Amino acid sequence: MRFATFLRLLAFGLALSLCANDIQGAALSNIDLRSDKAYWFDQPVDHFGKSPSIWKQQYLVNATFYRPGGPIYITTPGENPASNSYTDQTHFTQLAKSTGGLLVNIEHRFFGKSNPMTNLSGSSLRFLTIENVLEDFAAFTRAAKYHPSSVFPTPVSSNSKIIFGGGSYAGNIAAWMRAKYPDLVLGAWASSAIVYARLLYYQFDLSFGRHLEALGCAKQFSQAVQQADVVLLSGNVSALADLQSQFGLPTGLSARDTAGLLAFLSTAYSMQAVSKTIDRVDQGVCAFFRDSSSTTPLQSYAASVKAVIESNRMTLDYLAQTGNSSYGIDDYTLGQIGRVWYYMECTWFGNWQVAPPPNTGLTGYRSQLVDQSYFEPNCKKKFGDNIPTPVNVQKYNDKWVRPLERSSNIYYTSGSLDIWQDATVATSSGNLISSTSKSPIVLIEGATHVQDLRTDRPDDLDSVIKARQIGDALVAKWLK
What we know:
It is a single chain. The chain is of the alpha/beta class. It folds into 2 domains: 7-196 and 398-479, Alpha/Beta hydrolase fold, catalytic domain (Rossmann fold, 3-Layer(aba) Sandwich); 198-383, no CATH class. The protein is built from 19 helices and 12 strands. The protein has helices spanning 3-12, 85-88, 91-99, 122-125, 130-146, 169-180, 203-215, 218-232, 237-246, 255-266, 280-289, 297-311, 316-323, 337-349, 372-375, 377-383, 393-400, 402-405, 462-479, and strands at residues 39-44, 54-62, 72-75, 102-106, 162-167, 187-191, 198-200, 350-352, 410-415, 426-427, 430-431, 441-444. It has an 8-stranded mixed beta sheet with strand order 1-2-4-3-5-6-9-12, with helices on both faces. Strand 5 (162-167), helix 6 and strand 6 form a beta-alpha-beta unit. The longest helix is centred in the last third of the chain and has 18 residues, at 462-479. It is globular.
């Protein structure tokens, strides 16, 4: 199941292929400053003594704007591979330019080419803990701060001021790094950071519904989902095959897997940035419900899903693999972003993207078949019987959200149309932690996911520009 990860990749549209001309770390003084060069930092498999082995963590550097004494901006792509898009094409690039800073993008363990183990079995992934992840970044940050010649291809001042930044899950990392290592990290910009865990994250659909309501097609979309559910819940094999054909989906998937695939495809544009001129949810979803040639909500729904499939050049084989909840259960090979993320969901924060339970009376925008039993059983199938279910989200929140309440110099942002808003500190019902002058929380009106940290564009929403200005002023204050 790679739905959440695919949405993030689709939202950012990043070029994730890495330069093949990697280097192995030594003789840094002879290396040019191209930001697509890969460097490697030695890390222990386990920072707490359970494995003595060493692995190499990949990072990229952009020193184009660096001036002696300037700050170091560290980001991680989170669950994505490292890319010079993160050092060259984000708002942090503008910050580095204006402050004479150096940019670093460093991979997260088990993603991209940064693999502590030779496979992704459950026994290997036991080393994927938040504690190990943060110690990875702390070890690199210490080297960057106190021994910069060991990690950078250009002379960098010792004891530089370090700002950590990131969006979505990478925003979690930024906030945690400031909270846990205030002696290393001066401040953090945490955009759409999904720090709060919910076992059943039906708020995902409620946020999507708010976007559809703003565009005027929420009612028709919900009706279409209900019409599809009549078939999906019927047990009629022939009718299921007809429905799959109508939506351009591969036949042979179960009703439950078809329901999950439809939910994935229909929200594919929900994390795309909204600008003054473009709203991809409007173009890719609501526009089809305004098409007079479609006579029923179900037909409009099918047309919109087909358009997603065609525009993203998804093959039937790809769709069959993506929709099949059992696909890859026994495949432990490296490079499977979805498998690693699934492990984190099973063991860290749940956030299963489900339809609202019937007893809530809330409007649904996905099939009732997409519930907890759709996601959770695969935890043990994928990673072994020792994985406890359900995941203890209360324990997670107590350990990783509460420390944020006491931390200063963290800038939190979230969009009012962000499907992950209710997993951030700026939920739709109010802030989870106090917003202070030292750690402000800004809700960006009309924005979706991580809009403020994307590269600056002329057609950006005024609310996004304002959020950036607030963040820039905070960074300037921290650096003083």
